[in-house]
Design goal:
The complex is a heterotrimer of chains A (294), B (325) and C (318). With 294 residues, chain A is mostly helical. Chain A has two domains: 87 residues, no CATH class; 151 residues, MetI-like (MetI-like fold, Orthogonal Bundle). Chain B is built from 13 helices and two strands. In chain B, helix 8 packs across helix 9. Chain C has an eight-stranded mixed beta sheet with strand order 6-7-8-3-9-10-12-11, sandwiched between helices. Chain C has a four-stranded antiparallel beta sheet with strand order 2-1-4-5, covered by helices on one side. In chain C, helix 5 crosses helix 6. Classes of the chains: A mainly alpha (294), B mainly alpha (325), C alpha/beta (318). At the A-B interface, helix 5, helix 6, helix 8, helix 9 and helix 10 of A face helix 1, helix 6, helix 7, helix 11 and helix 12 of B.
Chain lengths: 294, 325, 318
């Protein structure tokens, strides 16, 4: 345990301070992280910084939707709800779903990947086959299928997304483990026999962690987008909870009458959040596995 | 094969009896039983599985919960619209991605290079339906340049070519209108097709951009490229004639791999643009809680993806030894 | 008027760690039909010099100063399109490694046709192929092989093809960058003889860039020696043979194995070429020079010792 903590912190903390020195990749990671952290903060502080209750109807007396004004900087939607407050509150569901799905992926995908590739044999072959099948399947379609059956709710959304992304973790871990198995196996085999397993886990895990981090950040981004997609087709959470995805769905009908503000701001927020994670993923990937360009 | 089993398991074994889910509130037990019997869902799971497989071989994808009509028929009639959208989106994605990738590679490490790469990353982060809506807003509603929904102007559906008893119709409006020789129908088909395929194409182009760029960077570094330039060959000849050849095969394989993503994106795009394809069908069915239909459609998607990857594998094997010379 | 006049040419590579002067204030001239040998170790700047003549210096290289006049016109001032017109037609370049310099998916006939039709667009494909076959004959390759691919030829023949592509449009100047390094010794001699005979037939000037002094000692009219980016000695062939003046040149001559000497010990020049990011003050050869003096850490000028013979060394004055 200590070793794992040590290696993660050992890479991250000095990494954080020297990120700026690592050139473009460092900056990209920082920008991404800033985006993500600010949005998370905004969501956490929502109850205190929102001017109105996001679910309160007709905060602005009709006619609604009302364009951006001094009183309502981002306008109101057709129900008279304040868009600014809805922006502050709206990321919560998506973030919860993303975090939960990544968590599920980690606790299922990681051990499965490690065990399967380490043990080899029938277990490995079967798992790989299953994982590859899921991986090849169109992600959103599968998520929709699962979510449709499970029903609404944060947990169900997270589960559907998790099922779609577990194969990615599995594959990355597996390829890493297989390489390392070749490297250290022979040497470790000569060492104390019974301790083989522990040694390998202490060697493999720290080496696998960088790739996992990268996959996880990309997973976050995809989870956000998929969650938005699920909401859009009606498989999200209860409609009473403010959510950027719902604003997009509901705002659609308002386009023909020119109410552009209802979908624009939530949409931009989703983009920023997904972008933040993507940038982090790009930057981290470059930092942890520098590509040999030139 | 395995895909089917997984899908079947997923849709059936997961908690929640599909029939019960269909009837949200408590219904008379007789109604529930009736539906079950009608759909063959009262038999043990294992028998259902084999029955389903058998049905598939005959092209039977089950019956809709809504009206017991065959799901297969509904799927097949909705499919061509999705196919057309998919083809044109893929073309746009590849063309934009490759051209920008080449540009970025040649302007290596310059501002142009970085902005193109940024473009590729950002387009991926935009939810496809949001982009679609923005396009609808700007180009459809504000500028009135393009229509914002459905596939073509009412009464403008093309009919294909009829030669005596033989009727050729692909289901693709662009092709069918040309077959019919009707230019105005063709123009309408294109007009309606433009925004949805542009949307889906843009979101997917990022990966082709990245692929082409890295391939080009490698190839442009090679000696025979410098030697060709030293002989005074034109920049364009060298870039496109020489270097692009190497990027060709990877792009092709990537197209196959991206097919799955394409289908996923199509669902959202079709919903946004009211495009009458398979994607919109699935979403409709979700609203109706028509689980057998959803299952049928998902299975269909799975088969499609399997077919395409098989095709790509064969194509690859065919092209590869020739390149090996 | 000389065909080629290089005047104070300076080329730098701009890297993150600093700028490297690959070519430092080099001047020389070349007459029509003359053969010039450019000799130097790896890193001496000789290849960069050759590439700058056709303006194909790889990035991050930049020309910092000087001029390159071909028939009176400074090619550094030409537009890229004008320069492209010169490449292959007036000035040709032969690369070091024939294995990688030919496009593996094109037949050699296609290489020629492409080249000829780029510079002479009115040429038909049959005409171009006809000319290609003629060239192959001159090179000693069977014309029937015009539809073969590069990998079907041996290294020596591939280099011949490269030479063929270079002379196809009868250029005024051919630059050959280490044309024989990738080949074995026997083939080396044949290639060099081929180049010389082509010069005799077509009258083009030839620049042979190489690290091997022995190659150019017998075949060139004029020789320049480069070290760490600077031109350290320039002389006519006979003068260079009889009176090699710069200690570096002398070292090079001494290290050439002589087949007639029974008991020869190979004499290498001690030490290594200097780090171009960290050059010593003054003469760049001082750390390896057997005659080094106090004087040598001053900037060393190029000294005229008569008979068009120049040496960059304080031993001869300054």
């Amino acid at each position: 345990m200590q070793k794992i903590k040590h290696s993660i912190l050992g890479q991250l903390i000095p990494g954080l301070s020297s990120l700026t020195k690592r050139g473009a990749a460092g900056w990209i990671t920082i920008i991404g992280a800033v985006l993500v952290v600010s949005i998370v903060l905004m969501t956490l502080l929502a109850p205190w910084i929102s001017p109105h209750d996001p679910s309160a109807i007709d905060v602005n007396p009709p006619p609604n939707p009302a364009p951006p004004s001094e009183q309502f900087p981002l306008g109101t939607n057709h129900l008279g709800q304040d868009m600014l407050s809805r922006i502050f509150w709206g990321g919560s569901i998506m973030l919860q779903v993303a975090v939960l799905s990544v968590f599920i992926c980690l606790i299922i995908g990681m051990p499965l990947g490690l065990l399967s590739s380490y043990a080899g044999g029938v277990l490995d072959k079967t798992s790989s086959l299953i994982m590859d099948s899921i991986y090849a399947f169109p992600g959103l379609v599968l998520a929709i299928a699962i979510a449709a059956t499970l029903g609404r709710g944060v947990v169900n959304m997270a589960l559907s997304i998790a099922v779609v992304y577990i194969p990615s973790y599995f594959r990355v871990i597996r390829s890493q483990v297989l390489t390392i198995k070749e490297l250290t196996y022979t040497e470790a085999a000569k060492a104390a026999g019974a301790k083989r397993r522990t040694i390998l886990f202490r060697y493999i895990l720290p080496n696998v962690v960088p790739s996992i981090v990268v996959v996880a950040t990309v997973n976050f981004a995809d989870a956000i987008l998929t969650a938005a997609g699920l909401t859009f087709v009606g498989l999200g959470v209860e409609k009473s909870i403010p959510d950027w995805g719902y604003d997009l769905t509901d705002g659609r009908a308002l386009l023909p009458i020119g109410a552009w503000w209802v979908i624009t701001f939530p949409g931009i927020m989703i983009v920023l959040l997904a972008l933040g994670f993507t940038l982090m993923g790009e930057g981290l990937s470059e930092l942890l596995n520098p590509r040999l360009e030139q | 094969m395995l895909l089917l089993t997984i899908v079947f398991l997923v849709v059936r074994v997961l908690p929640g009896d599909p029939v019960l889910l269909h009837f949200e509130k408590a219904e008379k037990p007789e109604a529930i039983e009736a539906m079950r019997r009608n759909l063959g869902l009262d038999k043990p799971i294992v028998i259902q599985y084999f029955e389903y497989l058998g049905g598939l071989l005959q092209g039977n994808l089950g019956k809709s919960m809504q009206d017991y009509s065959p799901v297969g028929q509904q799927i097949f009639s909705a499919f061509p619209a999705t196919l057309e959208l998919a083809i044109y989106s893929m073309i746009i994605a590849v063309v934009i991605g490759v051209l920008l990738g080449v540009r970025a590679a040649k302007a290596y490490n310059s501002i142009q290079d970085h902005s193109i790469r940024a473009f590729g990353i950002v387009t991926y982060a935009i939810p496809v339906f949001f982009l679609g809506m923005i396009f609808q807003m700007v180009f459809g509603i504000y500028f009135h340049w393009f229509p914002t929904g459905s596939r073509t102007f009412p009464t403008m559906e093309p009919n294909g070519l009829t030669v005596g008893d033989i009727h050729i119709s692909t289901g693709l409006y662009t092709i069918d209108s040309l077959l019919e020789g009707n230019l105005s129908k063709f123009i309408q088909a294109v007009r309606y097709l433009f925004l949805p395929s542009l949307t889906l194409g843009l979101v997917l182009c990022g990966i082709f951009l990245r692929l082409t760029r890295s391939n080009m960077l490698e190839t442009l570094r090679q000696d025979f490229v410098t030697a060709a330039k030293a002989r005074g060959l034109k920049e364009t000849t060298v870039t496109y004639g020489y270097a692009l050849r190497t990027a060709f095969l990877p792009v092709l394989t990537m197209m196959g791999l991206q097919f799955a993503a394409l289908l996923g994106g199509a669902i959202l795009t079709e919903t946004t643009f009211s495009w009458p394809g398979l994607g919109r069908y699935i979403v409709e069915r979700i609203n109706f809680r028509d689980y057998t239909a959803i299952q049928g459609a998902v299975v269909f998607f799975g088969l499609l993806v399997a077919l395409v990857s098989l095709f790509v594998d064969i194509l690859y094997a065919f092209l590869d030894p020739r390149i090996r010379l | 008027m000389p065909l080629l006049e290089v005047d104070s040419l300076t080329v730098e590579y701009r890297a993150r760690r600093g700028n490297v002067r690959a070519v430092d204030n080099v001047s020389f001239s070349l007459k029509k039909g003359e053969i010039l040998g450019v000799v130097g170790e790896s890193g001496s700047g000789k290849s960069t010099l050759g590439l700058s003549l056709i303006r194909q210096i790889p990035s991050p290289g930049v020309v910092m100063g000087g001029s390159i006049r071909v028939d009176g016109k400074d090619v550094l001032t030409l537009s890229e399109e004008e320069m492209r017109g010169l490449r292959g037609r007036k000035i040709a370049f032969i690369f070091q490694d024939p294995m990688t310099s030919l496009n593996p998916v094109k037949t050699i006939g296609a290489h020629f046709v492409e080249l000829l039709r780029t510079h002479e667009p009115d040429l038909s494909e049959t005409e171009a192929l006809g000319r290609a076959k003629e060239i192959l004959k001159v090179l000693g390759i069977l014309p029937e092989r015009i539809n073969d691919y590069p990998h079907q030829f041996s290294g020596g023949m591939r280099q011949r093809i490269m030479i063929g592509l270079a002379i196809a449009l009868t250029p005024h100047l051919v630059i050959a960058d280490e044309p024989t390094t990738a080949l074995d010794v026997i083939v080396q001699a044949k290639i060099l003889d081929l180049l010389k005979s082509l010069r005799d037939t077509f009258g083009m000037a030839l620049i042979l860039v190489t690290h091997d002094l022995s190659i150019v000692l017998e075949r060139s009219d004029k020789i320049i020696v480069m070290y760490a980016g600077q031109l350290v000695e320039q002389a006519e062939r006979l003068d260079m043979q009889d009176k090699p003046s710069h200690p570096y040149t002398q070292g090079l001559l001494r290290s050439i194995p002589n087949i007639e000497l029974a008991d020869q010990r190979l004499e290498a020049i001690p030490g290594n070429p200097p780090d171009l990011l960290n050059l010593p003050e003054g003469c760049r050869f001082q750390q390896r020079c057997p005659y080094v003096m106090e004087h040598c850490h001053k900037e060393t000028p190029l000294i005229d010792v008569g008979n068009s013979h120049f040496v960059r060394c304080f031993l001869y004055g300054g």
